[in-house]
Amino acid sequence: MRNLIILSLILPFSSYALEDVFSKMDKETALSTGIYKLSSSEKKALLNWLAGPKKEARQKLKQEVRTEIKKEVIAEEVKKEKKRFMGFRREESERESIKSTIIGEFNGWKGKNTIFKLENGQVWKQSDNSSFYIPKQTNTAVTIKPKSMGSWQLKVDGFGRGAKVKRIK
To answer: How far is Cα 25 from Cα 29, in angstroms, rounded to an integer?
Structure first.
């Protein structure tokens, strides 16, 4: 916003400075450049041509300032929206199920101390007190699904029961 204000103050004066260039030119320079041969409209056209790149740069700067202002406005709107829904997880629909295998031997879970180390490098811990026993297996396939209120549920593929889990690594 400050840049836009500064630009609006500077831009009008830059054109006056360019128009005054020829009147400040000494006779020798005017003769060597041939400027004295040009009419006032030709001088003005020359000044506009010389100022062209500057105009493009100013337009680019204006566009950058407008973009920056839009970003700030959008960021502020996002903050307001997050505050409005604080306590509710709006990202629930964006979370996806995780399919992996538990490393090593596995025969079920037995309460909040059960740790699940997955092949994908993730480590999960049981967060409820449920128990479930299955015949001992090696590298057991599991699916961890998102549930409501930010929770997750681990299910062993091929079995109907699951445990509420929390990711710890």
So the answer is: 6
Angle between helices 40-84 and 2-19 (to 10 degrees): 180
Question: Which pTM was predicted?
Answer: 0.45
What are all long-range contacts of 6-9, with beta carbons under 8 Å and residues at least 24 apart? Answer: 7/58, 7/61, 7/62, 7/65
Q: Of the segments 30-34, 48-52, 83-87, 123-127, which one has the largest average pLDDT value?
A: 123-127
CA 142 to chain centre: 33
Instruction: Work out the angle at residue 61's Cα, subtended by the Cα atoms of residues 52 and 8, and round it to the nearest 5 degrees.
Output: 85
Residue ranges covered by each domain of the chain: 2-84, 95-167
**For residue 144, what are the β-bridge partners?**
98, 154
Distance from C-alpha of 22 to C-alpha of 47, rounded to nearest angstrom = 10
- pLDDT of 100 over the 80 cut: yes
Which alpha helices (H) appear in 1-100, and where do they start and end? 2-19, 21-24, 27-33, 40-84
Structure tokens at 18: 């360019």
At 126 the three-state DSSP class reads strand
Confirm if 134 and 156 have CB atoms less than 8 A apart.
Answer: yes
Return the closest-CA partner of residue 129 out of 117, 142, 111: 111
